[in-house]
Amino acid sequence: MKFDLAYCLSLDAKLSIYDVRDLNFDETMEFDSAKEHFQCPNDACRTAFDAANVLTTFNGKNVNYVRTPHFKNTPSTRHVADCPYVSLKAPMPGVDGAETDDTREEHFPSELLLTRRQYVRKPSSPVVVADMASDAAKAPSAADHGEHPTNESAPDKTTVFAHPVECFVSNFGDKELLKRMPLKIGEHTAPYGSFFKKIEYLQDNKGLIYWGKIKEIKDYTQSFRIDFEQKVWFKQADEAKKKPYSVNVYLSKKLIENYRKRKAFLQEIKHAIDSDKELFCFFYGVTPELKQVPSKKNPEQTFGVFSANIENLDHFIIREAPGLAEK
Length: 327
Ligand SMILES: [Zn+2]
Known about the structure:
alpha+beta, 2 domains, four-stranded mixed β-sheet, about 15% helix, about 25% strand, binds zinc ion
């Protein structure tokens, strides 16, 4: 069975697997999921056992994953009888913990928060944390097992872009579901199905998550350029009809150099350059606009191209997405 969250002992917080991946690759944080202890997110269940009763991760550290990352039981993980995480999909005896459906992300965050989640390591000595006082007003009753979700750990919100992208990619075949599930980013709310916009239709609306198949990645001195396969059809004011324009985005190498997940990001893009697989790019935060650029062959001439500079690498992903290959 899959877990949407797991309790991380050292951070004293419930994390999604996407939080864990973000922490693993963050060079400013000391964190390695292989050395951390993850436990059942149900507080009553977790506290019923000792710290050795753990969950494990799937695709927690793999930069270029295809199958949906998740937490899962180890062969010896135990849960209390009424733990909501043992019901439904509990493996049949003797089936050796077989997963029923681990190829889909079933937990759709309803909001992508644009500010990064902050983590505080649990102090090793039992010092009283100052901001615990704010929780005092709401004394935990027996019924709510001391659960106090904060903004960040609310299961329906995420700060990691890869999470809504995985929801979209792994459920791409289920159009009805993508139409039903809402996603909010900043002030804009739309179903997943329309928040994710094919790059060729970028003129329809600004401020969406744009995605498309990558045609080529160019490695320049100052930047990488990602060219998309699809073109945007656009009619200039002085022209009679629409013409197709190429679309690209630029990634500044300076931006990458200063990125907290620099190593993982370089690994992701190098892998993409060398890969012969179909790759897709997803980004949020900028909308490519028509620009005139000088022609290489004839520098006095210019041609039009829809282009944007990526401003935040946290909201940019290149990945394989087998289900998205166009028919
Ligand atoms: Zn449990």
